[in-house]
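Known limitations

Files may contain more than one protein. Parsers should not assume a single record per file. Below, a two-record file is shown to illustrate correct handling: read the sequence, read the token line, then continue until end of file.
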Amino acid sequence: MSTSSGDPKPVVTGYPAPLAAAAYPYHAPPPPSYYPNVAAPPPQPQYYPQPYTAAAVAPPTYNPLFLRRLLSAFVVLFLLVGLAVFIVWLVLRPRLPEIGVTSVAVSGFNLSASQQQLSADFDVNLTVHNPNRKMGIYYDHVTAAVLYGTDTISEASLAPFYQEKGNTIAVRARFVAIGEYVDADAVKGIRSDQSRGDGAVGFQVTVLAWVRFRSGAWRTRWHAMRVYCDDVPIGLKNGTTSAASGYLVGSTPKKCVANL
């Protein structure tokens, strides 16, 4: 069998050409710059926002005219209230009560000079007069005491009470002293007082009370009132340091001094 005449087929070596669909993908290169000779701009610095702080907020603004008016209103209100209280005080004119010692009875009086101790029972009666014609008086936390010089012999608490305007009431206070210490000067003073003709020993009676004046719906604040009844003469029946009883001598009532 004869072959056809013509060029022989070339010999092929190596791998066959890959198919177009099976080729490795490549990203297209970026298009060239419009100005190829101009360098690219430098990168911009990274921006970091500042954190929020209270100091960054602007302080509030105040109206000085409003503050001046508010302050003026408070000053005017204070002056008006003070003026009203002063006018009421002038109209009512509150006066302190008038207090006096009307009687004193002492029993079981005994003074030990060697031990500097005093024992006695004091029964004291006071009169309290309210001189105000338009105001009543409240008395609260009332305490009374009997002293000789600066030595307190006995103290007592009294019941609170209210006194009507222009009223006079009697207040009784009982003091019990059992072996109360007195200094050497007090012992000498009591002995000296007893050596006198009437044997009168000058004691002191004091009263401390919180008082408040009232006229209708108007009331004052509480005030501390102190009452001093100095040199209250109590006559002991003999001139020794031991006496069974004693009494108030001299004119009665023995007036006291009250102040706030």
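...continuing to the second record:
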Amino acid sequence: MSACAGMFLPVFAWGETDVNIDNPLAECVDIHPVHRQEMDNLTILKTTVTLKKSTGECGCFSTLINYTSLLAQDVEGYGRGSAYSLQEGNISLAKMQGRYPFSFVLSVDNQSVRDQKLALMIRCTPPL
């Protein structure tokens, strides 16, 4: 598995609301938050993603990375049955090089998360 250390970066928007980014793949894939916004019913985190080196060098078995958004208070309990994800997906880095914009959908129901601190977790996608 990867020797990359996890990083939490707060993203401040709308007063006290923020998004923590947990990215143990930061040595390979840098995710720089630009801003959090609401669009219709969605809560979106706009970012700039920089591919620094192959995700294989950070322990991933493919060019797919997984993201999960959840309430920040639930990060510790995620995977242990005491938290649930708001949104989850895979991102293909196969044809991407350098730096590019990317928008993460954090929630499809922005009314339920409007005043909540959120977290975005980045992980290797498990082997298919």
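Parsers that stop after the first record will miss the second one. For reference, the second record is described as follows. The two ends are 17 Å apart (CA to CA).
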